[in-house]
Structure formats: structure tokens, C-alpha cells
Design brief:
The chain has helices at about 55-75, 115-125, 155-170, 200-205; strands at about 15-20, 80-90, 100-110, 145, 150-155, 175-180, 185-195, 205-215. The two termini are about 25 Å apart. The protein has a four-stranded antiparallel beta sheet. A two-stranded antiparallel sheet has the order 4-5. Strands 6-7 form a two-stranded antiparallel ribbon. It has four helices and eight strands. The radius of gyration is 19 Å and the shape is globular. About 25% of the residues lie in helices and about 25% in strands. The protein has one domain (about 15-215).
Length: about 220
């Protein structure tokens, strides 16, 4: 008989609930035309029943959706993540002209052992000279400072995810994407630039991450 034994903990999925408060929180997320508008749109223009009515709003939707995709990339950086149960509220969720005011979703990591969710924590806190278990270097982040309260020590996976999501919303970039031009009633290709919608301290304030459950896998 082999002496190798798989830890039960390594087979247990973990679920983290994320809530982004994009109105009524600490930060202000612009709607006026500019590279900092759009907040976070979980979907692009194609998924709205009522498309953006102007090209400027089409660009705003594209910026917000790029930020959501940056979040997906960030939480998947050190482990395979599944994004589930994505929901948002706005002045009318079927119309793209309404910028989201809250966004919620669940992140699932299938294994809570070092190969998955807990690797987020170790990879974020490892120094940049230390190689993580995924082969990439660590970020060397010990803490971050939201607007409200003191510095937050990165000592749990939830806090590491809060840091990564805040950085993803802050990220400035330029990318060519499909944008809905309301004047033409058609899609066009545009190079879209996004800038930080708020200060990083306010963004941290408006990101909440909670471990909601850890469930054992069951064979049918």
C-alpha cells in the first residue's frame, strides 16, 4: 500500500463573495465622457436589450467591461478561478446607458490547498525575489491602505483577493475592442483607453470580499 495520502482539505472548494459598491460608497465613479468613466460593467454592449444610445456611452460600457475582465484576470492569476452568479444593479439593468451601481459575484476555487486558493495569499505576500508555487514571482504585498480605517494586513485569501481586485479596477490600459456606436446603430472597432476611476484608497474601501463557504466534493 502506498504511503501517499491526499489531504481532504486539498479537495474542498472555497467560495468567495465579492461586492463592489460603485454608488453610495466612499468612491465616486464618473459617468461623464472620459477615460475614467464606466465603473465596472460585468457584460459588454451585446448583452443589453437596449444598446448604448451614443458612441460616448458605448465607449463607457467598453471601459467598464474591460475593468471587469481585468478583475477576472487578476483573481485567476495564481490559481484557476470560476466566476459564478454575476449580478449587478443600476438605474435599469436591461439598458446599457445605466452605469452599474453595485456588482456582486462569487469566485470558486476548486481546491483550498496550496495548489489553489491559498496560493493566492502566498503569491501576493511572497517577495518579488521568491518564486511562487505556480512558477511566477510573488508580489511582496504585506498590507494595503483603504480610505476608512488603518492599513489592512494581507493575511487571508479574502484580503489578498481584495487587494488584487482593487488593483485590477485601478489598472490603466489601452486595448482595441468592439464598441457600440448608437449614432450608426452598429458595432465598430475602437482603441479604448481606461484610466483609474478613483483613488486606490477609495477603491479598496468599495471592494468587499468574504469567504462564504467551503464545501466538500461528493462523488455521485
Amino acid at each position: 500500500m502506498s504511503g501517499f495520502k491526499i489531504s481532504t482539505e486539498s479537495l474542498r472548494p472555497e467560495f468567495y463573495q465579492v461586492v463592489l459598491t460603485l454608488s453610495g460608497g466612499t468612491g465616486s465613479y464618473p459617468t461623464a465622457d472620459g477615460t475614467n468613466n464606466g465603473a465596472v460593467y460585468p457584460q459588454d454592449h451585446s448583452q443589453f436589450a437596449t444598446k448604448p444610445t451614443t458612441l460616448a456611452i458605448g465607449r463607457r460600457v467598453a471601459r467598464g467591461h474591460l475593468r471587469f475582465m481585468n478583475i477576472v484576470d487578476a483573481v485567476s492569476r495564481f490559481a484557476d478561478a470560476q466566476i459564478q452568479d454575476v449580478q449587478f444593479t443600476s438605474g435599469g439593468a436591461t439598458a446599457a446607458d445605466n452605469q452599474p451601481t453595485t456588482v456582486t459575484f462569487t469566485i470558486r476555487y476548486d481546491r483550498s490547498g496550496a495548489a489553489s486558493a491559498s496560493n493566492i495569499l502566498t503569491s501576493v505576500t511572497n517577495s518579488a525575489s521568491a518564486v511562487s508555487s505556480t512558477g511566477g514571482v510573488g508580489l511582496g504585498v504585506a498590507s494595503f491602505a483603504p480610505t476608512t480605517g488603518g492599513a489592512v494586513t494581507v493575511n487571508t485569501t479574502a484580503r489578498a483577493l481584495r487587494y488584487l481586485i482593487g488593483q485590477a479596477i485601478l489598472l490603466a490600459m489601452t486595448k482595441t475592442v468592439r464598441v457600440w456606436d448608437g449614432a450608426q446603430g452598429a458595432e465598430i472597432d475602437e482603441s479604448i483607453t481606461i484610466a483609474a476611476p478613483e483613488t486606490i484608497a477609495d477603491i479598496y474601501d468599495d471592494v468587499a470580499v468574504t469567504l462564504v463557504d467551503a464545501a466538500e466534493t461528493v462523488d455521485s
